[in-house]
Every structure is written in C-alpha cells, then in structure tokens.
Amino acid sequence: MRQLPTISLLIIWLSVLGALLLQIMPIPPLIDAYRPNWVLLVGLYWSMALPSRFNLGSAWLCGLMLDLVWGSPLGINALAFVIVHCATVLHFKKIRSFSIWQQALLIGCISFSYQLLSYFFESWLNDVRIPDGYYFSSLSALVVWPWLFLVLRKTRRHWRIS
Amino acid sequence: MNTIFTRRFPTRLRLLIFVIISLVVIFSAERMTPYRVHLSSLLSPLQFLADAPIEALDSVSDNVKSRATLIAENRLLREQELIISDKLLTYEHLRLENIRLRALLGSPVKYKQRKLIVRVQSVDTDPFRLQLVINKGKKDGVYSGQPVVNEFGVVGQVIDVSQYNSRVLLIADASHAIPLQNQRNDVRLIGLGKGDLHQLELQYVTKSTDVKIGDLLVTSGLGGIFPEGYPVAKVSAIENRGSEIYSTIKIQPIAQLDRVRYLLLLWPNQPADSDEPAKGR
Fold first, then answer.
1. B124 vs A21: CB contact, 8 Å cut-off?
2. Could you give the count of Cα atoms lying within 13 Å of A17 in the half-sphere of its Cβ?
3. Which of B94, B163, B257, B277 gives 20 to 30 Å between its CA and that of B206?
4. Number of Cβ pairs closer than 8 Å across A and B?
C-alpha cells in the first residue's frame, strides 16, 4: 500500500531538518573540516530516489534554508544546490543502478563540484579566501554516503514513501 | 511511476527558472533584509536545539566544580577585583575632570550607555565567513549594525537579526573594515579584515605616516557604528617595499576572537541610568 503524499513529504522534510541540525551542531574543531554537507547529501538522496517528490524546487529550498542557518548571502547555496541537483535529477535511473561504492564516488564528485561552485559564487560577491581543509568535506561525503544511503533507503521502505 | 512529470516541466526549464530566481534573490539582498528576519526566525529554533547540549554541559560543569577549584577561582577574582577597583579610584577622578574640561569645550560626552551581556551559541556557520551567533535577538532590541565588544576590545558588529538570536560579523572577516585611530598620536587609520582571526591589515598608510610596532589602535568613532575609544588591535608588523607608496602593516586584534564565550552588546545611542550591563544569560 502506498503512503499518503502528505506523510511522504513530511518525512522527507523532517529528514532535511535533521540534516540541517547535523550541519550546525557543534563538533570538536579537530574534525570540523571533515564534516560532510549533510543537507546536500540528504537532498541528493531524495532527488535520486524520488524525483517526483523532491525535484529542483525542493533542492532550491534546501539551499535557501542552509543559507539562513549558515548566515551566507541569501541565495548562494540555493543556486549551487539547484545546479548540482541537476545531475541526480537528470540521471536518476542510471545512478540508481550503480553499485553503492560507485555511487559514493559520484556523490563525492558532486559534493566537490558543489564546493567549487559555492566558492565561485562567494568570491564573486565578496573577497573571500578558502579556509584550511575546505575540500576535506567532499572526502568525508564519499565515506559517509553508503551509510546515509542505507539509512535513508531503510526509512523510505519502512514508511513506504513514494 | 515517475516519467510523466519530466515531460510536463523539462528539467532544463526548471533549472533556468531557479537560477534566475536565485540571481534575483542574490542581487536584491538589500531589499530582502526585512524578509530575512522572519525567515531566520523560523529556523532559529534549530540553532537553539543544536546549542542545547553545550549549554547543558556548561551548567553541569558549573554545578559539579570541586570546592578547591571554587576557592582558587574566588581568590583569583578577588585579586582581580582589587586591581580593577584600584584603577577605578583614579579613573573616577579623571572622568570627572574630563567631564569638566569637555564642558568647557562645549562638547559633552555620554558615558553611560545601555549594555547587555550575551552568550555565544556554538553553532556552525558559513565556512567563508567569520561570524558568531549570539543568543539575543530583535526581542531584546538588538539591531543590525550594533557594536559588539568583550572584556578586551572590539569583537565585531551585528549583521543579521532574527527574533530570538542574531549574527555577529567579526572584525577579522574579509568583508569588514573598521575606522581606527592610533592612541599614541591620534593618526586615523582603517583596519581591514583578511579572513584570518589573528591578523588584520591597515589600509592605505603612506610610508611617512607615524606608526610603530606595538602601537595601540582604538576605535575613532567615525563611521557612526563603533563608539570612540574602544581598543581594537596592536600593530604587529610593518613592511616597506621599495617600489610601493603604501606600507603593508599587520595588526593583531586584542579581543581573542577564536575563544569568545560571552560578549557585551552596546547601544551607543541609548543612555542608561547606570553603567552596569544587564544580565543577558
């Protein structure tokens, strides 16, 4: 039996809020640079698994929420999110058929291009410099992806979200 | 199950639409400010939630301090109080004298202003920006452009206010500049952030300007944001390159920007009855 659309949307957005919380949670400065962009990863998962529920509009909203909690210039992350989510939205069928480590590699690349894009947009508005270890977070995105994927897939199947 | 929607609205068209919306949002940042207050108020519960474990840990560690630590801390505070009140004895005399002299000049200064102690929320922020989130917002009268100091010197200014918390841009951020004057000779300077917490730079200082290593730079009161006389930085290095007109001068902020826990918000335009800050905890 299929889940009601409202419940599906509710669970999807609850997972996004959870990702936002993980994103701003205080962690020791030593591993702070390795914090993956949780919001991006969760967004990529939903856009790949259910493009009918989570498309570019939702990705844009996620980016905007990240702008608000991070205090970035409004729209910077939203723009970068929309652009990188195109990859998963356009090729969701292909990516679904990949093995989990192939997916992880791809997600690492997408996260890297997101970081390049957001640096590009920020440096376009302001004079910024790249903090130390900025790109480590893509590396940990690669490592974290399989586990996040399994957890979210479990959630999706348990609640029969479609 | 999901092939129809792509036909209805091709992805490329969606992309174009959202890129245009984003660009409009980015370029109308000034006009978006009032909406931003409401939008960030919607999400600020997340920040309180993320900060809650740290705040709880703080109060736990306050409660389980041993007797010996408390005694040691108490003794230290007593000694500090003695030193500070000794300074205040002469300060009060000088203050009254200054008021009399100022009155002779016809330009009285306001001494007492509204102040509020705030706590820094430990939440992560944009990696490209040096900023802090504090636990007071519009509800307590915090406004955008408000000066923020701590016990050592100037920390930054408020850039973004939500209902219950707000965001402080540090003086070391690459988009921040602060008008300064040299305490030794009143030369006016501009301190420019470089995105480095431990170093700022002085902008457009000709080689002939009288600046020495170790000079204390205080706010000049120009620009209308920071009140006059708060210490900001010490000159740490001066470099003169042969072919350039300006010298490169590095300054070191006095407020230790990487380890702030409690801050003081100032309302320079709101006189207060007493000089004591309100407890904001």
1. no
2. 13
3. B257
4. 125
